[in-house]
Each structure stands twice: as structure tokens, then as C-alpha cells.
Amino acid sequence: MSKLKIEHGASKVNLVLLKTNIEDGISQDIELMATWSDNERKYIVNELLRFALTQEEDFQKHKASVATNTARPASVASPTLPPDKSAPVAVSKSDTPPVVRT
Question: CB-based burial of residue 47 (10 Å sphere; 0-12 exposed, 13-18 middle, 19+ buried)?
Fold first, then answer.
């Protein structure tokens, strides 16, 4: 199993707001770890979540499959097929004679 590494004084990252509630005991541990490592709580929370997400193998497999499915260009997903010569040709109702395929 890999180890979680908290760097001292390394809490300079871009953040997105995540509103949630956590247990009081976990909050106290996060505060203690932040004080001990000289980091902000939000940095500690991010590092703990990053560590947990990388350890979950099933999630990592799912993440990889989603990434490959969404990264595939549309031209690759549906190859172009030659026109079907047996399909009927749509004829407009104008005075022009219909186009005949051979």
C-alpha cells in the first residue's frame, strides 16, 4: 500500500468550492494535520481526497474507461459506409424528371 505524503507549507493550489458536511472527529483530525504540517485545511482535504481516489482501483478503471469513451472522435466512432444502391431515391414533386441510378 502506498503512503500519503503531506508536504509542509505547500498549500498553493487553484480550488473549486465543494460544499459538504463531514463528521466532527474527521474535522478535528484535519485541523490537527493542518496545524502539524503548516498547511491550510483545504489543502489537507484535497490531498486526502486525491490519495483516497488514487487508491480505489475500481474507480480508477471506471475513470479510464470514461476517459477513453469521451476522448474518441466522432469520426472514429461511426465509420462511413458506402451508399446502399438498393435503397430508393427520394423524388421531389416538382416538374423535373426523377433521377435514375444505374
Answer: buried
